[in-house]
């Protein structure tokens, strides 16, 4: 009779131990998978930097050698809107967030992402949102404007009255 009660207790505690151990193992596995940062996004502008003059053109092969000679590179981009005037109080800054920043069309997390700026890229800060949590920027090289989360850039020492 004693051995039956001992077997029951031993089986019960072993089952509890296996259930708790399995749950802890699954939780640990899921936690480690969820806590890893996603890969850095590669924006279209970053891919274009390798060939700023012209896009590569695929030439046809085979008997159409005349068509291959007529292939022309893509046109160069239009002049960027660097000559746009800056509003009063605007300043030049540099992105300090290591993964780069997403540019949004409105100053909130639910708005659409329109572009991105890379780490150490220079931007013009045009204004801040009313709650000071967002900053409206213009990319120095591209001229695109949008909103970024505040606190991820540093002001550059150079005074900037108009872009050159």
Q: Beta-sheet strand percentage?
A: 15-25%
Strand order of the largest sheet: 6-5-4-1-7
Q: CATH topology of the domain at 84-164, anyone?
A: SH3 type barrels
CATH class of the domain at 84-164: Mainly Beta
Counted by DSSP, the helix tally is: 3
Distance between the termini: 94 Å
Main beta sheet strand tally, sense and closure: 5 strands, antiparallel
Structural class: alpha+beta
| CATH level-four homologous superfamily name of the domain at 84-164 | SH3 Domains
Helix content bin: 25-40%
Q: Give the strand tally.
A: 7
Shape: rod-shaped
Q: Could you tell me the mean pLDDT?
A: 77
Q: What is the CATH architecture assignment of the domain at 84-164?
A: Roll
Radius of gyration: 29 Å
| Uncertain stretches of 5 or more adjacent residues | 50-55, 64-69, 160-164
Order of helices and strands: HHHEEEEEEE
Explain what you see:
The protein has 164 residues and is α+β, with helices and mostly antiparallel strands. It has a domain at 84-164: SH3 Domains (SH3 type barrels, Roll), CATH 2.30.30. It has helices at 2-34, 44-48, 65-70, and strands at 91-95, 101-104, 113-117, 122-128, 134-139, 145-149, 153-155. The strands form two sheets. It has a five-stranded antiparallel β-sheet with strand order 6-5-4-1-7, with no helix packed on it. Strands 2-3 form a two-stranded antiparallel sheet. A hairpin with a 5-residue loop joins strand 4 (122-128) and strand 5 (134-139). It is rod-shaped, with a radius of gyration of 29 Å. Mean pLDDT is 77; it is low at 50-55, 64-69 and 160-164.
């Amino acid at each position: 009779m004693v051995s039956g009660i001992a077997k029951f207790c031993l089986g019960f505690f072993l089952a509890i131990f296996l259930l708790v151990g399995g749950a802890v193992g699954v939780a640990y596995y899921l936690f480690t998978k969820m806590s890893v940062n996603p890969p850095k996004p590669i924006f279209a502008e970053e891919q274009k930097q390798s060939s700023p003059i012209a896009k590569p053109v695929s030439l046809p092969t085979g008997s159409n050698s005349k068509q291959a000679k007529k292939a022309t590179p893509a046109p160069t981009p239009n002049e960027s809107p660097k000559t746009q005037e800056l509003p009063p109080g605007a300043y030049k800054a540099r992105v300090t967030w290591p993964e780069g920043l997403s540019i949004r069309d409105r100053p909130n997390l639910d708005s659409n992402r329109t572009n991105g700026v890379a780490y150490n890229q220079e931007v013009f800060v045009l204004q801040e949102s009313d709650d000071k949590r967002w900053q409206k920027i213009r990319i120095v090289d591209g001229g695109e404007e949008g909103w970024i989360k505040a606190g991820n850039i540093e002001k550059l020492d150079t005074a900037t009255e108009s872009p050159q």
